[in-house]
Specification:
Layout: E1 6-11, H1 18-27, E2 30-34, H2 36-46, E3 50-56, H3 65-77, E4 81-85, E5 89-90, E6 93-94, E7 102-106, H4 112-166, E8 178-185, E9 193-199, E10 204-212, H5 217-229, E11 233-236, E12 239-242, H6 245-258, E13 267-275, E14 280-286, E15 292-294, E16 300-302, E17 321-324, E18 330-334, H7 337-341, H8 352-359, H9 365-377, E19 389-396
Parallel strand pairs: 1-2, 1-3, 3-4, 4-7
Antiparallel strand pairs: 5-6, 8-19, 9-10, 10-13, 11-12, 13-14, 14-17, 15-16, 15-18, 18-19
Helix pairs in contact: 1-4, 2-3
Length: about 400
């Protein structure tokens, strides 16, 4: 053991314990002894020459609690190990009540061999301890800048979420006997899903759900593009023409494709149109989950419609499908986050969310959507959803 390793022994007794002195001699360690009252000044004066501090505290000479805490805090601030020779409690203070410090304890009557081993270990650890304290100091220097950065990011994400919600309809239009209800649950602050319900004229209402691949800020930015690029009416002076769903998606696909987006960005969309006089439903689909139709008796079926994803190929054709709705019918458009919101029992099991829709099929569409939210929130992992969830529910009132 090198002679340069020096120890400060703070002793509130009359003499250094014999076994401690024996361990110091065997390790050829230089030491300096002082009383507790002089210890703070001694530490200040000789801090650069010390590697370990020993508090040799006899049971019958209790140390004042304030002084003991001041000592341990000062020793810790100097990146020094502390070995306390005492019983379990020091006066009325338990060791785990001391603030900070790399504190080790041994019995006051510990054998010389045991003390020799402990001291050798502490001195061996001292260089690494100083390195760790230096690294901690460096990390602490980053704390405030990082905290301010993340606070700013959090504020910006909150603002982005609020702005995105401002692009959603503030209230659902009630067109004759058609009622709407929605569910909108982003997986993070912002969503890769977007929806809209639009009263096109006195007798037509349009609606869609679109889902950009992924979620978070990149997907959310593309939802704003979809919101602006999806055109439902063509205005000619004082006249207008309602654009059929297939053409709406074809135009949207062309706009998407012509942006030349990097990283192979694409989206899905299902757009529908209802004539409130005849209750005719016309819709087209661009790679989106099929809408679910629920008749007045609660029977469910998927309304199939094929169409390629948006933004992959130019000049795509989206076939329009037509269905006759009847009073009491419901229609559900949803994003594929619904599939991930409910855990399946196994890969061969049918998708659970369809079963949950079936259980709620007899309810009015507003209650159905509210119940679905409650069920999603009760699922395991609902606090950290894997994808955005959006539902647009439509009901023909009897």
């Amino acid at each position: 053991m090198s002679q340069k390793n020096k120890l400060l022994i703070i002793n509130n007794g009359q003499t250094v314990p014999t076994q401690l002195q024996s361990a110091l001699d065997d390790l050829r360690l230089k030491s300096r002894i002082c009383q507790p009252a002089q210890a703070l000044e001694e530490l200040k004066t000789n801090q650069s020459h010390l590697s370990t501090v020993i508090l040799a505290l006899e049971k019958h000479n209790n140390l004042e609690s304030d002084l003991l805490k001041d000592l341990t805090e000062k020793i810790h601030s100097l990146c020094l190990n502390i070995l306390i020779l005492s019983d379990e409690n020091i006066g009325h203070i338990k060791l785990d009540q001391l603030n900070g410090g790399d504190i080790y304890q041994a019995r006051y009557d510990e054998s010389a061999e045991m003390l020799k081993g402990r001291l050798a270990m502490l001195i061996e650890m001292q260089p690494r301890l100083r390195e760790l304290h230096s690294e901690l100091d460096m990390l602490r220097s980053f704390k405030d800048p990082l905290s301010n950065h993340f606070t700013k990011v959090d504020e910006e994400m909150r603002l982005a979420a609020r702005l995105q919600r401002d692009f959603l309809p503030s209230q659902m239009p009630q067109v004759n006997n058609i009622r709407f209800a929605t569910v909108y649950r982003p997986a993070t602050w912002v969503s890769g899903d977007i929806y809209d319900v639009m009263r096109l004229d006195e007798h037509h209402v349009g609606f869609y759900v679109s889902d950009v691949v992924g979620h978070g800020m990149p997907a959310a930015l593309l939802t704003m593009f979809i919101k602006q690029a999806l055109i439902t009416k063509r205005i000619n002076g004082h006249d207008y023409t309602i654009i059929e769903p297939g053409e709406v998606l074809a135009q949207l696909n062309t706009e998407f494709y012509e942006q030349g987006l990097s990283d192979f960005q694409f989206a899905t969309c299902c757009y529908g149109l209802i004539d409130t006089r005849s209750l005719k439903l016309r819709f087209a689909n661009a790679g989106h989950p099929y809408p679910i139709h629920i008749d007045k008796d609660g029977r469910m079926r998927e309304l199939e419609a094929v169409g390629s994803l948006l933004g992959i190929f130019d000049e795509q054709h989206y076939p329009m499908q037509t269905y006759q709705l009847n009073p009491g019918d419901k229609l559900l458009l949803y994003s594929d986050g619904m599939e991930l919101a409910f855990a399946n029992e196994g890969p061969d099991e049918p998708l659970r969310f369809r079963q949950e829709f079936e259980h709620l099929a007899h309810l009015d569409v507003e209650i159905l959507c509210d119940k679905m939210v409650t069920m999603i929130e009760q699922e395991e992992g609902s606090l950290h959803p894997r994808d955005d969830v959006t539902i647009v529910g439509i009901q023909v009132v009897k």
